[in-house]
Structure formats: structure tokens, C-alpha cells
């Protein structure tokens, strides 16, 4: 039996085990997916191999550590330096990023989007922003601290911290911070978020399975919003395809994974 896991801190909230196990069980693929709480990202590689894993997903806050842990990084993950999917290829650790394409899938229903405000500057923000820029979209990044903004400025984004933020009009505002994940915090001060929400058509949060304080404000303002569930589904389908290496049909993976959301 092949073993897979998700690494994170926190990780107990993760729906990935349920999603992937539903696919494995219902499509008769001999594998099991567990969760691994990891404090120290530098221990990722040794823990992966000590557990005898065939593959893994990586969540907050270890996606950049995962990039550094890989023997080889492929595709879009190389562009962004952020890895959320790991594959054991003959004892070598190979890294991929499926988050960004998962998010593109999630916002298809919003129709044409040109201007995006990304709140946050972590691994998820990097992946989404680099993907948005590939699509030729205009992106502004707002983060709590200045330190991580240079990556986004180099991509051609407008970048701001809370102190110097300059409001414009957006088609979509997306929260990529972990504010609201295990607390009830907003991703920026209330006054700032309130004016931002008055200047956008659509709102999305990468956090899934709960109405974050950010999404609650969007809801209260009558905006069209979505949580990170569809992003989760999109990235999960792509990760599972890598795990089974073409042994299962993509549409079947998607169907089983989507059904697991109702469990
Ligand atoms: P990182 O740890 O790489 O980045 C976290 C970011 O959040 C940083 O910009 C940090 O700001 C900011 N931040 C953290 N706490 C606060 C706060 N209280 N107020 C304001 N800003 C804050 O995390 P990831 O990018 O890996 O993940 C971010 C979120 O996205 C997580 O909640 C994760 O669960 C979710 N996610 C969901 C996915 C899905 O499939 N739905 C896929 C990927 C991620 P600073 O730089 O100042 O520290």
C-alpha cells in the first residue's frame, strides 16, 4: 500500500486526508493518506522519508521550506519557489505547485477579472500572484509587514503595507493570509478592510470550511464571495493526479473528491 500525508502546523483542520482517501477508496487505488503535524520545516525531508511516503501535500507554514527540501522542482513551483505537492520519485524528492491552478479553477465562475488585490505575502500569495501575472492581470499586494513585498514588486505588482496603502477599485479581493484560520482576526485593520470591500465586485478567501471574519464582512456588505473550498478541490485534483501518476481518470478523481466535500 502506498502512503501519503499532509504536513502542516496547524494540520488538524485539513480536509486533504478525507479528499484523497475518498478517491483512493472509491476508485480502488491501494493507498492511504494521513496527516503529520510538523513544527520545524527544516525536518520536512527527513520526516517524509522516515514515514516511507510516496507523496505528500504541504500546507501553512511550510511551503517555502518544502521548495528548499526538494531534490528537483518542476513546472510552476520553480517560478514561485513554493511547493505544495511532493512526490517520491525513486528516492528523490520532487516538488510541484498545484495551488495556483486550483485557484484559477475556483474563480472561473466570477467571469472576467482584470484587477486583483491580494492581501498577504506568504507562499500562497506568491503562487497566486505569479499565476495572475502570467495571465496578464493587474495585481496589487497588501501585507501586514514590508519585509516580503520585494518579490511582488519585482513581478510588477503595486505593493503596500497597512501604513502606506493606496486604495483603488478592484474586480476581486483575495485573502491569502492565515488571519481567521485558527483565530478570529481580520487580515488588516477593520477600517482598511471596510473601505477595500466597498471597492470590489468579488471577494475570495483561501481559508476554507469556515466563514472567516473577512468573509463575514463581505457577506454583511452584500458582496459575492467564496471561501477556499473550490481552490482546495482544484489543487487536490491536480495533486492526486500526480500521486497516482495517470493510473486514474481525472474526471473520476474530481467527482470522488467533490463528493467527499459532502461528508
Ligand atoms: P504563509 O505562512 O506563507 O503566509 C502567511 C501570510 O499571512 C503572511 O503574509 C503573513 O503576514 C500573513 N498573516 C498571518 N497572520 C496574519 C494576521 N493575523 N494578520 C494579517 N496578516 C497575517 O501561509 P500560506 O501562504 O502557506 O497560507 C496562507 C493561508 O492560505 C492559510 O490559511 C492556508 O490554510 C490557506 N490556503 C488554502 C488553500 C486552499 O486550497 N484553499 C491552499 C493554500 C493555502 P507577515 O508577512 O506580516 O507575517
Task: Report the total helices.
Answer: 11
Please provide the ordered H/E string of secondary-structure elements.
EHEHEHEHEEHEHEHEEHEHEHH
Distance between the termini: 24 Å
The backbone outline, from C-alpha atoms, is: globular
Low-pLDDT residue intervals, each spanning 5 or more residues: none
Rg value: 18 Å
User: Which ions and ligands are bound to the chains?
Assistant: NADPH dihydro-nicotinamide-adenine-dinucleotide phosphate
Class from secondary-structure proportions: alpha/beta
β-strand number:
12
- Share of residues in strands: 15-25%
In terms of topology, how is this protein built?
Elements: E1 2-8, H1 16-26, E2 31-37, H2 44-50, E3 55-58, H3 63-69, E4 72-73, H4 76-80, E5 85-89, E6 92-96, H5 99-106, E7 115-119, H6 123-134, E8 138-143, H7 150-154, E9 158-161, E10 170-175, H8 190-197, E11 200-205, H9 213-220, E12 224-226, H10 229-244, H11 250-260
Parallel strand pairs: 1-2, 1-3, 4-6, 7-8, 7-10, 8-9, 10-11, 11-12
Antiparallel strand pairs: 3-5, 5-6
Helix pairs in contact: 1-10, 1-11, 5-6, 5-10, 10-11
NADPH dihydro-nicotinamide-adenine-dinucleotide phosphate (NDP) binds at residues 59-61, 63, 99, 102, 120-125, 143-145, 148, 176-179, 181, 185, 187, 206-208, 228, 231-232, 235.
